[in-house]
Fold:
Amino acid sequence: MDDDALAASGAVVVDLRSNVSSAIVKATEKQLSAKKGGERSKSSAIALLSTLCLAPGGIGSSEQISSVFRHVKTILNADDDANTRRHSAVNSKSLKLEALCLVRIMLSCKKHDAADIKNALLPILLSDICKCVQEDWYKVISEALRVLMEIPGLLVLGSATKAEKDEVATSLYDAIEPRLSEHDLDQEIKECALSASASLVSILHASLTPDQKNKILSLLLERLKNDTTRIAAIKTLSRVGKAAKSSEDLELTSVMNEALEQLALLLRQQSRSLKQSALECIDTLVICLPGSDFDMDEGLFDSVLKDLGEIISDTDLHLCHLSLSASNSILKARPSTGALVKSHVLPASLDLSKSTLLQDPALASLLNLLEQMIASGAIGFDELQKLLEGQMAGGGSKGSKQVISNLAQCIAAIALASPAANQEKFIKSTISAIKPSSADVEATQLNLLVSGNFGRKVDLSKMKGVAENMQKIYFESFDSSNEDIKHAAALALGRASVGAIDPFLPALLSALEGSSGKKQYLLFSSLREFIHCYRQTEGSDLSSSVPMLLPPLEMNCGNDEEGVRAMVAECLGALACLEPKAILPVLKKLATDDTDMKVHIHWTVGNAVKFAIGGQINPTELAPFMPTFIELLKEDDLAVKNVALLMVYSAVHHAPQLVVGIMREQILPQLYELAQLNMERKIDLGPFKHTVDDALPLRKAALSVFSTCLDKCPSSLDIPAFMPVLAKALADVEDIQLQSHQIVHTMCARHPIPLVAAADSFVKALEKTVNKKKGQKTGTELERVYEWIKSGLRVMLAMSKLDGIAGAREFIDFADRIRKSKPHAPFLAAVENE
Structure:
């Protein structure tokens, strides 16, 4: 964490440069310069300086930096001193290694002024570090190469002159190239040489001669062909390729054909990590392909694309995403490969489009590839549209909402990539195909979603009659007898409103005024989708529409239908993220509402704040309103209490700063009370009676809040005060017990002292758990009992290892009894072997 991040988190940042660091450096210099000083003293001094580098301000100013570098130089040149040769060779090498580690930390820690480091390093230490690369001990060689790897970046940060860069680049090349070209070396040296060469070529390529660059690139190819170094070589090529993308004087033409050929071969290997690295490298390299006049082996693309097509499958969506991305990059760089992409990659992509598992990056990469195929002319729009619509007939995909949604996104994406002249024809054709009363439900859903996804990106109000027809069809679809069609129409209406707010949003809000029941729920679903999609639009500003949106939302905060209130809460939460200054005061007013509908209204407000926190609302905007929202914990209604607890949990998890200041005064007292609340009632079911505990969800939520606080903001807790609550929870129903066991495990590592003090109070509950009778239970019920017993034993064993637990005599006696118990022996053995 850097100094700015520390300050932002509320930590006190003390810059040691003012007085402390210079004194520490001066003290360590006495040890480093002492001729009779032992290796241990010098080693400890270097360790102290290494730690000081990580503190704010580092080891100090340019004076201290130069002084430390001079002492490091003495250590690195120790073998040249006749007096030093009397010392143990092993100790000398070890000290040299530690000195190099110190230099690397100084270069990479970002606590010093880069110009000061650069100005001291180049004249004092650079030549000596380069000499260390020729040492005998592999650890010293590797560490010297790691130091050299940091130097190119330092030159950029330190604003080095061209002459300095040229001189340093030559020195680094002369040091790295021999180690890169040797074969009979330790594996660590090979990998460090590759990393150092990546840094040199990617940053200082302008200071290298063409022969030097080609030499390093040819050596990278050799390493790529070697089994032991190929992953490191792939990473090096990827880094060089990224630099070549943004630089005109770094060309990879000399190795491009052979590199792609080798990478294509690696795609056929079984190793997943190797495939992943090779795919990322291919994606990077093909973007660096020069113009069509470059003599490229076109047959190579045939081989590469064939291998890429074989990887596209829903069995591994990450590799699938990388393969699609690489195919897209090849098509962008070489539009002439369109026929090959259509032949080798498209069939697998179409199969993937009907997978129920397709989502996130893999879906985004598929959409990008299909768009590029249309844009490059690899396939015609009409042909690809028919192929995608044909996937609906696949046996496993029929009726799947996920598949229909994915196919709708694919079709909308290729329509958006087609020429503008064809887009109006496409959308009118899609609208005419929507028949809410049609027996082909899946086709209707597909066309509805396609129209919505298309309208999200295109302003349909500019196409004559299109917006009006779509509105009419969407509202007619709400009256369909099929629930899936209704849901698809709601999503489509919300998405289409994003691209054309003026015609769609007023119509949606007008329909809300006279709606009720299921139709009202669907309209609020549309509004929620509109707000969510609008949030994802770059530069989104909904401030002008807030006055239209708020009245129906406020009016329905107290709606009798819980589903409608949930939708209203999501809308308000998403709006609060977009326009916090307008929405948060409204929520605060609603949270203090004292009308007859206040229970429903407060429930909605709690959910809205929870959604806003989960939606990454600006904590600075929300913080002043949190004390008001926390008061919902004191409501009498159990549902409101539960929502308030979930709101607190969301705050602790996503933005602890919202509740840290009010935790002890407002939250913890309610947390302790709700964690012990018990409201059992019996329901007469005729032949037997069933006991229901209405407070069980509250106890679960309260313990979840406490558990998350232990991880996110432990300093705000009063842990000793919570121990009686935890002791009671250990004796609660099974689900609560298991939660409590997890809390005890967490506290064993972080807060052992309160646990030791309360250990005796846990004994009765733990003994009951580990001695639970299995009765007549069999199968999964019996396994559940066994897991319950083992969970209790894990708590016992974890607490038995705490310092000071010997003073808890009752707990120690309990642990001894269980360890000597024969029935518990197999359970203990199973837990100890985990």
Notes: Confidence is low (pLDDT under 50) at residues 5-13, 80-90. The chain is about 70% helix and 0% strand. Strands lie at 680-684, 689-693. The CA atoms of residues 490 and 525 lie 6 Å apart.
